[in-house]
TrEMBL record:
Keywords, comma-separated and alphabetical: ATP-binding, Cell cycle, Cell division, Coiled coil, DNA condensation, Mitosis, Nucleotide-binding, Nucleus
Taxonomic lineage from the root: Eukaryota, Discoba, Heterolobosea, Tetramitia, Eutetramitia
InterPro entries: P-loop_NTPase, RecF/RecN/SMC_N, SMC, Smc2_ABC, SMC_hinge, SMC_hinge_sf
GO molecular function per UniProt: ATP binding; ATP hydrolysis activity
Sequence segments annotated as region (Disordered): 264-302, 867-886, 1191-1232
Protein name: Structural maintenance of chromosomes protein
Family as reported in the entry's similarity comment: Belongs to the SMC family. SMC2 subfamily.
Length: 1232
């Protein structure tokens, strides 16, 4: 396997894709100027081989491998090496089938590092394994020879050179592991010493101590056996004592029972007498109830009387207040009437004043107008006289002015007449034109009319269909309102009450997962499944009779009950009654007959229920009788023929066992829960009924017909809208607009011809007549123009008259203004008086209404007061009667109570005696039970006592003596037990076992140590043999390579010791024998390099030149590499310290000694790459490196070292350069 092609892209100084192809299988050289990128090619090879030590490729991180670290637009560095794998014998394992192996590595800025083998992504370990299998370990690169490595070998000491031989032989790893093994054995030896010390100081003394503890434990155990024997004896003795004691106690109990029975009879007689007295007291209570009102009624009467007194006081106060209010209102009416009369008189006075003022105002106003006209006339006359014109003044002005006005009117009339004529001609022409255009648009108008007619017929058809439904929207609306009203009533009344009751009894209901249990199998609560016949009376009694069973859940069978509880997950704790498993007690027919004599009824007859759930209802109420009152309940409960549980209507319970429960319910007066549930059921039924009626109303509305009607109605609206749109379009069409315009023009033409033009001509004719008349008047009137003096006198006269008239007019205007102000002021005052009169009349009307209202209220209050007084007297008489009857009954009841107290005291004394005797009797029974219990316990816990207590002789000693013996034995055992290690047996066995295990393990460790030492001895022998073989091979190659590089010289590796021997070191044979002897016995400590020229061996390497020492180090390195040859070697400027002749020898040596390995050599010397089969030259152009393959390089010598900057280097190289290069080579040869 060797490199055939390298592709570099973006790696270090190679910015663009660079391909190095055509590598030779043997010898390849790379040359170029310093810094042109030669070593970067070697770094690229190491990069692909998977190098991890980045210092060897002269960077600190992978990002620096990218061209200019990604700052020049290149963000990825990629190197691909193509290996020729044609030789299957040298192929890596697993890749024999590939003729080529392509390995690539990429690194991206900010991205990940990626490897590819034959185009497929691979992990780093896979790539390293590939190259390790062919001796190419880039992290320990023996195949990579740098210039610094040669210097390092030159400075190596003999032990380091021996280490290189050992590494080449493969024994270096063995030495490291042998050293680790020796260290481990030293640690184990130390551990063994610790174990021996532990055995002597801890384990053996512990074993001895545990042995003593074991003996104490055996003694303590024997005492335990003795205690156990004594315990059995004492137990048998106790069992015998308890048996005898039980027999004597049974006799005492029989005697005590007889005495108790006798005393119990006496107690019953005393109780019966007390009951008789109690019955008499109760009869008095009943008679008191019949003759007078109860305490509650009496208190109600007192409360009512007090309320009546309060009401009467309020009514009396209200009556007085109403009378005062009526009197006040009447006074207000009188005052307002007087005020109205005064205002009316003032209004009449002001009206008369206004009439006189109005007449005066009209007179003054007329005179003022006359004076104003006179002023105007005088001013015109003065102006005419001053102008020298003789005028005839009238109200319409001078004749000249009138004549000019008439001429102007005549001109306007002529102009208007001409305009009307021209407008008539224009309209006529426009009409002709429009009529022609209208005939053209007639067809379009006909089409629109047809569409309108069609839409009209469609609309009528839909309206007929809608009317055929006979649907009345008003009726529908009325029924809808009824439904809404009904729903609001249900929500406000029934539903609200249902919600209230549901909230009050919600805690008795429960919810469950209905999907887990079939709903038809869960009937519900017992309270829901029954209905009370008379809820107002019996609900309390039935609720007390049933108790909590009323809220149990009824199901069909036990399987449903199990599913409901387990799978149904109810929201509260429930008790279930399965109908197929429930058991109940029923009344005997004779019992019911006996109870009915007292008026009692079984609870079952007071409820109604479905027979399918009868077992649950019977179980709920059981044998319970409902009675009206306490007396009845007591008699029924304790009747010998009945003896059943009874419940009164108030919820008091009598039990034949002697318990009485109740008394608080009557005081609380709370509504029964069963009553609430019953009412809820009734309301729910009523609600359902109302909902049925509501549904019936809703059904009465034919929804389909209503929907059809609404659809037809919508269609009608739509068609109507379409029709209106078409009509609007028709009205706005060209034809309609033109027709409308023609009509308007025709009307205007008719108006001009018939009205406007005749009127204008008539006015024109009349104006001409007036004009002619004025012209005649102007011609006939002669105007005489007087002298200047006459005109001035006439003007003065007119002006004097003008001033007089003006002064008179001013005074008249002042008088007119004063009269107007006086009139307005009077009018305003009169309006105020009238408004005041209106307000007073309104107030009088309101006062009269209020008086009538107060009169009505007063009569009502007086009526209520009389009614209240009569009720007060009636209630007061009732209260007096009740108090008298109550005093009589209280006296009789007091006497009976004192008698009952005496009987109760006697009964109590007898009861105390009975209780004392009963307590003694119970104590005897308890002692008997305890004795029997203890004997039973002994017999149960120790079954052997019943059969084995007789062999013991209990006459020799008492039970106490036997117990003392047992106590002493236990105490002695207890004292012994304090110092006894009860785990001694187990601890001793465990310690003995651990001791034996340690002894066994110590033997195993010692045996393993002997085996390891024996193996080390055998491996040392093999190591010496391997080193001998390696030394022989390397020594031979070392001498051969060095003699090739430096003809006439020889070299060898000699054995080295710290203490120099006195033997002659120049004797070759002696040295070889000494080497063999030392390798065999393993006494070698190092190897030193010896060099000779001719037959003389140099004593020290310092006698050699620098170049000779470099060749010597290179020879040693290559000799070591040839021991285990790699497929490829890289030499980086190893000839830097050599002259050209030595460089040429290196080339020849590589060809002769490494025929099966590929060499890639970086060099600046011609002598090195002269022997290369392929030469690559690198250049640094425009900031990046380039590579070119030099064709026929052996003839092109002038460009060595990269001195030629020509970009084209090929087989047509300049012959002049070839000759000069050849001559330089010959000169160097002669010089040498």
């Amino acid at each position: 396997m060797y490199i055939s092609e390298i592709i570099i892209d973006g790696f270090k100084s190679y910015a663009s894709r660079t391909v190095l192809s055509g590598f030779d299988q043997s010898f390849n050289a790379i040359t170029g100027l310093n810094g042109s990128g030669k070593s970067n090619i070697l770094d690229a090879i190491c990069f692909v081989l998977g190098i991890s030590n980045l210092n060897q490729v002269r960077v600190t991180n992978l990002q620096e491998l990218v061209f200019k670290q990604g700052q020049a637009g290149v963000t990825k560095a990629s190197v691909t090496i193509v290996f020729n794998n044609a030789d299957r014998t040298r192929s890596p394992p697993g890749y024999e089938e590939y003729s080529q192996i392509t390995v690539a590595r990429q690194v991206v800025i900010g991205g990940r590092n990626k490897y590819l083998i034959n185009g497929h992504t691979a992990q780093l370990n896979r790539v390293q394994n590939l190259f390790h299998s062919v001796q190419l370990n880039v992290n320990n690169p023996h195949f990579l020879i740098m210039q610094g490595r040669i210097t390092k070998v030159l400075n190596m000491k003999p032990p380091e050179i021996l280490g290189m031989i050992e590494e080449a032989a493969g024994t270096r790893m063995y030495e490291m592991r042998k050293s680790n093994a020796h260290k481990t054995m030293q640690k184990k030896d130390k551990k063994l010493e610790e174990i021996e010390k532990m055995l002597e100081e801890e384990i053996v003394p512990t074993l001895n101590r545990l042995k003593v503890d074991r003996e104490k434990y055996v003694k303590w155990s024997s005492l335990g056996d003795e205690c156990e024997s004594l315990e059995k004896y004492c137990l048998a003795f106790q069992y015998h004592e308890y048996s005898e004691k039980s027999k004597s106690l049974e006799d005492e109990i029989k005697s005590s029972s007889k005495k108790l029975n006798s005393l119990q009879e006496q107690v019953k007689e005393a109780e019966n007498e007390e009951k008789e007295v109690t019955k008499q007291i109760d009869s008095l209570k009943k008679s008191k109830k019949g003759k007078s009102t109860s305490g509650t009624e009496s208190s109600e009467l007192d409360a009512e009387l007090a309320q009546l007194n309060k009401d009467l006081a309020k009514l009396t106060a209200s009556t007085e207040n109403k009378r005062k209010e009526i009197e006040n209102e009447r006074k207000k009416v009188e005052s307002l009437t007087t005020q109205i009369e005064s205002c009316k008189k003032q209004v009449e006075t002001r009206k008369s004043q206004q009439e006189s003022t109005k007449v005066q105002l009209q007179s003054v106003q007329t005179e003022s107008e006359q004076l104003e006209r006179r002023l105007v006339t005088l001013r015109e006359r003065s102006e005419s006289v001053a102008a020298g014109v003789a005028v005839s003044l009238t109200d319409d002005g001078t004749i000249t002015e009138r004549l000019m006005e008439r001429k102007r009117i005549q001109a306007e009339l002529s102009t208007q007449s001409e305009k009307l004529r021209m407008r008539s001609e224009h309209i006529t022409a426009t009409l002709e034109k429009n009529k022609t255009q209208l005939s053209k648009l007639a067809k379009q108008d006909e089409e629109l009319k047809k569409v309108i007619q069609k839409k009209q017929s469609e609309l009528e058809s839909i309206q007929n269909k809608r009317d055929a439904l006979h649907f009345d929207p008003k009726h529908y609306e009325q029924v809808t309102k009824q439904i809404t009203h009904k729903q609001s009533e249900l929500n406000a009344g029934l539903q609200e009450r249902i919600q209230t009751l549901t909230a009050q009894v919600a805690r008795y209901y429960f919810e469950y997962n209905k999907s887990a249990v079939k709903q038809d199998r869960v009937m519900g609560l017992v309270a829901q499944l029954l209905s009370v016949k008379d809820p107002s009376k019996t609900c309390v009694a039935l609720e007390v009779a049933a108790g909590s069973k009323l809220y149990h859940v009824v199901v069909d069978d036990e399987n449903t009950a199990r599913s409901l509880i387990q799978d149904g997950k109810p929201n509260r704790r429930i008790t279930v009654i399965p109908l197929n498993k429930v058991r109940y007690n029923e009344f005997h027919p004779n019992t019911i007959k006996s109870a009915e004599k007292y008026g009692a009824k079984p609870a079952l007859v007071l409820v109604e229920y479905d027979q399918s759930i009868a077992p649950a209802i019977k179980y709920t109420f059981g044998k319970t009788l409902i009675c009206n009152d306490l007396d009845q309940a007591e008699k029924v409960a304790f009747d010998p023929q009945i003896l059943c549980r009874t419940v009164t209507l108030d919820g008091d319970v009598f039990d034949p066992s002697g318990t009485l429960t109740g008394g608080s319910r009557g005081q609380l007066k709370t509504e029964s829960t069963l009553q609430k549930i019953t009412e809820l059921s009734q309301l729910q039924s009523q609600f359902d009924s109302e909902m049925e009626q509501l549904n019936a109303l809703q059904k009465s509305i034919d929804a389909n017909r209503m929907n059809t009607f609404m659809e037809f109605n919508s269609e009608c609206d739509l068609k109507m809208h379409e029709l209106n749109l078409i009509k609007s379009r028709s009205e706005q069409s060209s034809h309609s607009m033109l027709l409308k315009q023609i009509q308007e023009l025709q009307n205007e033409l008719d108006s001009i011809a018939n009205v406007q033009l005749p009127n204008c001509r008539a006015q024109e004719s009349d104006n001409e007549q007036v004009l002619r008349s004025l012209e005649e008047q102007a011609a006939q009137e002669s105007t005489i123009v007087t002298t200047q003096k006459q005109r001035q006198e006439q003007v003065k006269k007119i002006e004097s008259e003008y001033e007089q008239v003006k002064s008179l007019l001013k005074s008249k205007k002042t008088q007119l203004r004063e009269s107007q102000q006086s009139f307005e002021k009077s009018n305003l005052q009169m309006e105020q008086d009238l408004l005041e009169i209106t307000e007073c009349e309104s107030k009088i009307f309101k006062c009269k209404d209020q008086i009538n209202k107060y009169d009505l209220e007063l009569s009502q209050l007086e009526s209520k007061s009389s009614t209240c007084r009569s009720n007060q007297q009636s209630i007061q008489s009732k209260i007096d009667q009740d108090l008298q009857e109550k005093d009589r009954l209280d006296q009789e009841r007091s006497e009976l109570r004192s008698q009952r107290e005496l009987l109760a005291k006697r009964s109590t004394d007898l009861s105390v005696q009975y209780n004392l005797m009963d307590r003694n009797h119970k104590q005897l029974q308890e002692r008997l039970e305890k004795a029997i219990l203890l004997s039973d316990q002994i017999r149960q816990q120790h079954a052997w006592v019943k059969s084995n207590h007789h062999p013991y002789d209990f006459t020799k000693e008492t039970l106490q003596q036997a117990l003392d013996k047992l106590t002493n034995a236990q105490q002695e055992r207890g004292k012994t037990g304090r110092s006894v290690n009860k785990k001694a047996m187990a601890m001793y066995d465990k310690a003995e076992k651990e001791y034996n295990d340690l002894i066994s393990k110590r033997g195993i460790v010692e045996s393993d140590k002997q085996k390891i030492e024996q193996v080390i001895v055998e491996l040392d022998d093999k190591k010496r043999v391997a080193i001998q073989k390696t030394w022989s091979k390397v020594n031979g190659d070392f001498a051969s390579i060095f003699s090739t590089l430096l003809p006439g010289a020889k070299s060898k590796l000699n054995v080295w010791k710290n203490e120099k021997s006195n033997d002659d070191r120049d004797d070759d044979d002696d040295d070889d024998e000494d080497m063999d002897r030392q390798v065999v016995v393993g006494e070698i400590e190092g190897l030193e390099v010896k060099v000779g020229f001719g037959h003389v061996w140099k004593q020290s390497l310092t006698e050699l030149s620098g170049g000779q020492r470099s060749l010597l180090a290179l020879s040693l390195i290559l000799a070591l590499l040839s021991f285990k040859p790699a497929p490829m070697y890289i030499l980086d400027e190893i000839d830097a310290a050599l002259d050209p002749s030595h460089t040429q020898n290196i080339g020849r040596m590589l060809k002769s000694h490494f025929a099966h390995s590929q060499f890639i050599v970086v060099s600046l010397k011609e002598g090195m790459f002269q022997n290369a089969n392929v030469l690559f030259r690198t250049k640094y152009v425009n900031g990046q490196s380039t590579v070119s393959r030099v064709m026929g390089h052996k003839s092109v010598m002038s460009g060595g070292g990269g001195e030629d900057d020509d970009d084209k280097e090929n087989e047509n190289a300049n012959t002049t350069n070839v000759k000069s290069s050849s001559s330089r080579s010959k000169k160097r040869a002669r010089a040498e």
